[in-house]
Structure formats: structure tokens, C-alpha cells
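With this grant's support, we have settled on a layout for protein records. An illustrative entry appears below exactly as we store it:
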Amino acid sequence: MDAIFDRRRGGATIGVNVVNNIITLEQKESVRLDPDRLNVLYRQLGDANATDVLSRTIEELALRISNCEQHWRQRNWANLRKCVRSLVGISDQVGMTALARVAEDVSHTIDAGDAVATGATLRRLIRVGERSLTAVWDQKDLTV
């Protein structure tokens, strides 16, 4: 329930609404992994080599996501676009289809010159990236 507090300032009354219940929106992104791509990787390279490649790929994706955020903060659009485009290719190769799609969305917003949309889609990219990396990690039980 809202409560109204009155404060007197030089004869004027100022009303302030106090909110008792605050609702926090939690954003959960679903991720899509293409298990066929991972299975092909494991068939082609064998378990040990595929696990090694996948581990290095996950580390590289995490680094590039971090770099994208850094480029965003610096408003370095050319490097942000380059970094995001590299995420598209790498994530697609290992079956992280949702990550590749969102990275493409970020690229489109950069090309459109829409800084607000770029910021919003980049935040989404970071959320999807974190969940995608965790999903692949958990699926293959990788260790570094």
C-alpha cells in the first residue's frame, strides 16, 4: 500500500509516494545448442582432441564477449562490430545457434547506427553467451 508523506516548505505541501512492494524483473534467456555439430566435432577429432578444441573455443568466446563489452564502453563501434562478427562465426561452428543469432542482431544494430538498440542487444548477447557457455560446458563435462 502506498503511503503519502507531507512535508511543509514555505507553506507548500509536497507529496511523496512510498512503494512497499518492488517487483524485480529477472531476464532468463533460453539457449539453443545444435548437438549434431558437437557430435560431428567429437566424431571427427576423437574425444580428447574435441574436448581440447571445445575448451579452447569456450575460453575464446568468453574473452571475445568480454572484449565486446569493453568496446561498447569505449564506443569503439568498428572494433565492436568486428568482435561481434567473430562471435557469429565461432559460435556457429560449435553449435551455439542462439549465441550466433544474437551476435548477428548486435551487428545489425551497429550497422543501423542505433546505439540504444546496440546496448540492449549487447546485454542480451552477454546473457545468452553466459548461458550458452555454461550449457556446452555442462553438456560435455569439460575441464580446463
